[in-house]
Amino acid sequence: MTIKPGDKLPDVTLMHLTDAGPTPIGTDELFGGKTVALFAVPGAFTPTCSNQHLPGFIEKSEELRAAGVDTIVCLSVNDAFVMGAWGKQQGTAGKVMMVGDGNAEFTEKMGLSMDGSGFGMGKRSVRYSMIIRDGVVEQLNVEKNPGQAVDSGAENLLSQLG
Fold it and tell me: pLDDT confidence of 124, banded at 50, 70, 90?
């Protein structure tokens, strides 16, 4: 069953890279009591994710914050080290928080996983974006064409805030 607007996010521990190394962060801490723009990608360093999806959120980060977003989170079924390296390469510091769902637990509980085995990628997340207010999904945009970042892109998500 896929999560939908009005649903509370599952209680899961995710990982992000800090100066202390891989650091756990629970979904309550990450999403509770604030407005969060979350977008998920099939994989760090992959073409659409690196050339369209993540750069769009970096570029629109100030506009998203001006529209009421407290935190912008990029999530992928990758480990915290990979997400940290990708964030550094893309210049996300102070703009987008890079979070790993290495075991796909969050992604599976959300009903937003896909099988990328045919591409040698194993279990991954579909491409999507959402607005979350205090841990509850307000908007969900699942990309219709996974080779693009239009439905799930920053521009579309920004148009939904207001």
Answer: confident
The average pLDDT across 11-24 equals 96
What separation in angstroms does the CA of 137 have from each of 2, 8, 92?
12, 6, 24
Active site residue 49: yes
Residue type, 97: M
The pTM of the full predicted model, rounded to 2 decimals, is 0.94
CATH architecture of 13-160: 3-Layer(aba) Sandwich (3.40)
pLDDT in tens, 136-151: 999 999 999 878 899 9
Instruction: Write out pLDDT tens, residues 53-70.
Output: 899 999 999 999 999 999
Selecting among 30, 37, 49, 83, the annotated active-site residue is 49
Alpha-carbon distances of 29 from 14, 71, 161, rounded to whole Å: 10, 12, 22
| Encoded tokens for 63 | 């506009």
Alpha helices in the chain (DSSP H): 27-31, 47-48, 54-59, 61-66, 80-90, 105-110, 154-160
The dihedral built from the CA positions of residue 17, 22, 27 and 30, taken in this order, carries a sign that is: negative
Residues in the chain: 162
Sheet strands side by side (includes 71-76): 21-26, 13-18, 97-100, 71-76, 35-41, 128-133, 136-142
